[in-house]
Design goal:
Elements lengths: L3 H11 L7 E6 L6 H4 L7 E7 L2 E6 L3 E5 L5 E4 L20 E7 L2 E6 L6 E4 L8 E2 L4 H9 L8 H6 L4 E2 L3 H11 L12 H21 L9 H5 L11 E6 L2 E6 L5
Parallel strand pairs: 9-10
Antiparallel strand pairs: 1-6, 2-3, 3-4, 4-8, 5-7, 6-7, 11-12
Helix pairs in contact: 3-6, 5-6
This protein binds a DNA duplex through helix 5.
Length: about 260
Amino acid sequence: MPEGLEAALYASAATELVGHQITSIEVDDRCGDSNVLASLVGRHICGVKRHGKRVALETDGAHVELYFAMTGRLIVNGIAPIAALEYGPATERREWDRLVMGTDRGSLRVNDPRRWARFTIDPDWSNLGIDFMSPAQALGDALRAQRHRRCSIKTLLLDQHVIAGLGNMLVDESLFHSGIDPRRSCASLGSVDLDGLAENISVTATELESRGGSHTGTLSPDLRSAMAVCPLDGAPLQRIKISGRTTIFCSQHQQ
DNA sequence: CGGCATGTTTCGCC
DNA sequence: AGGCGAAACATGCC
């Protein structure tokens, strides 16, 4: 998905439908139970909530989670808050619509070529960690509480049970600005390091949000795909896999 | 054609 | 028991 920043944009766009009555729902059977979702017809959308990468429409009946996986996009009243996802297809086909919801005064659809989107009634978010847009101090608390973990710091940051909403690009970007090697073990980082990292996550999230999304960082998709040099110090950028995810970092200033 | 992609869940192995 | 990495999921693009 869309990382947390993109989910925030989706949630913001969806608020346009608050107060509207749902009149129809069509869903790809692999992405959601059409019989269950049909129970939403006639309900009024009374709010939108987001936690991490998860977005849900609140109604006067059930709540529906819209989960976008890697390539899901939300289109509200024909307008997409994100025109085209990085690493997603350049074009859009209606056959990729996995959910189409009509209301009395507008519509919403989720378009996902890869078909990993999921639509769930009354989702349980209780296992998610604190939201990535929480105050830096709270993020620091969450990280420091996990110092016993044996995994790398990057793996920890990607764990949605610890901090919800951080994705691969935002994690790389935050570690880049923190000067921390993504391979370092959690235990090797002290409280000061973790609080500094938390602060960098906050600043980076705010900065990338204002610039338009997770792909607008210093480690842009172009830099990620090319074997480039570090824009800060000119040292070669490293490209490795951590927990199965492509990881870009500077061989010099990230230690 | 092979490999890779802003992600989560499941499986098997310590 | 619990945590970790790899595989699975499904599809488009370079």
